[in-house]
Amino acid sequence: MTQLSEQNMASAIVIVGLGQTGLSCVRYFLKQGIVPVVVDSRNAPPGQDELPAQVTLYKGGLHPEVLLQAKQLIVSPGIAIATPEIAAAQQSGVEVIGDIELFVRAAKAPIIAITGSNGKSTVTTLVGEMANAAGVRTAIGGNIGIPALDLLDLDLRDVADPYQLYVLELSSFQLETTHSLQAVAATVLNVSDDHLDRYADFEAYRQAKLLIYQHAQTIVTNRDDGLTVCAKQDGCGDAIKHSFGEDAADYGLIQKQGSTWLAYQGEGIISADELQITGVHNWMNALSAIALLDAAGVNRVKTLPGLRKFTGLAHRCEFIRELNGVRWINDTKATNVGAALAALDGLKSSVKGRLYLIAGGDGKGADFSPLIPALHDDIALTYCFGKDGGRFAALSENTKLVDDLDSAIAEISQLVQPGDWVLLSPACASIDMYANFMARGDHFRALVKAL
Question: How does 407-440 read in b/e, with b if 16+ C-beta sit within 10 Å?
């Protein structure tokens, strides 16, 4: 560990937490001629080998003596600002912000901001692809793909062709440390139990999500989820308000020429039959994307080719294969109850036979009970595994607890018949058994491909 000294403790800028976000912050400050200090509680933080030699790294703790010397702390999303060392620095007058706050202070182009418990990566990617299809030079980042500050760097490399629009996926953690965002359009797609291991209660988590609406020009809420609605006291009383939902109001669904259409105020925009993404939940994703781009002034007609081409994201209701008439779907990104319910609601009407569910993992303290009706009414059998597999299995009689994903696939493959679907939609995080949700999905894909 680096020894403390008055010289290297005196940096005005301290980055708390290394990793991908921390490194992007380091690069941002060095380009401005500012040498920050980095503090990380881990003994071997990821990214330390990439840290430039002139940047001092304190590890193995948060080192309050370093934090208290700073003028500004840039806190990575994985670290709660309620952490005692950070809270103490804030109380002593140190400014506590995140990388998104730095980004919005520097960005020149309009920003579309997207959050939600589920679907935000899909909508962020879709909005970016639709805008680019319309000829608007658009970059996406934040909680997805490229760290936001690195987007500024990419912008500067091509001064003759700067970005005209930014689309940011923002987590509740990022929003906690962002205060200057003035999005041209912002949405909370939905709110369901998640990250209750980080927040005092569900309402605290919800309020962190609603921060995205502050100072936004237009807000887009979900009519089918009252928890996404912003009250005047939440700082969005003057914003233009739109909503999306399954009925025909505002951005919604209508029946036209024997098909379901995505519509605005009762006028059809595009038939769902033209889309490559399926399920009501994906139609809601598309409606929210259309609403956000309309609010940003992007030509709607020109965006539709991008919508038609969009096939969805890996690990999100991803079709793996059809074998002997049985379809296998990878929805490993469903790391909470709301995401699993959305997948079940969106897909069940397409299943001609029986639907088998694979679920379980680390529930992060969430209440599984909202899943009980679906388990009883829509699922032939649910295979449960992982840290909270037993708690999940106790929800219904038509469940079976197994040791791991391999066991679930092996048993289900002997039961399924033509017309059946098998859905991995865990409603839990993967960290009890896998490095991340992608590794869990890759394992599912490999097992299914090997059948």
Answer: ebbeebbeebeeebbbbbbbbbbbbebbeebeeb
Pairing of strands 251-256, 259-264: antiparallel
Number of CB atoms found within 10 A of residue 132's CB: 17
CATH 3.40.50.300 fits 318-449, yes or no: no
Cβ-Cβ contacts under 8 Å for 31 (sequence gap 6 or more): 153
User: Which residue, 78, 93, 95, 106, is CA-closest to 13?
Assistant: 95
pLDDT, tens only, 374-409: 999 999 999 999 999 999 999 999 999 999 999 999
Phi and psi torsions of 388, nearest 5°? -105, 20
Distance CA 10, CA 138 (A): 39
Domain boundaries, the chain: 10-96, 101-309, 318-449
**Reported pTM:** 0.81
Q: What pLDDT was estimated at residue 283?
A: 94
pLDDT tens digits, 176-229? 999 999 999 999 999 986 666 778 888 889 999 999 999 999 999 999 999 999
Domains 10-96 and 101-309 share a fold: no
pLDDT at position 279? 81
Q: Are 405 and 447 in contact (CB under 8 A)?
A: yes
The interaxial angle of helices 19-31 and 99-106, nearest 10 deg, is 40
| Chain length of the chain | 451
Phi, psi of 131 (to 5 degrees): -65, -45
pLDDT score at 346: 81
* 101-309: CATH, from 3.90.226.10, 3.40.1190.10, 3.40.50.970, 1.10.340.30: 3.40.1190.10
Residue numbers in the chain where pLDDT is lower than 70: 1-11, 153-161, 193-196, 231-236
pLDDT on residue 7: 40
The count of other CB atoms within 10 Å of the CB of residue 30 is 14
Per CATH, domain 10-96 is 3.40.50.620: no
Q: Supply the residues annotated as catalytic.
A: 120, 143, 195
Alpha carbons 29 and 27: distance in angstroms, whole number: 6
List all residues 6 or more positions away from 231 whose beta carbon is below 8 Å from its beta carbon.
none
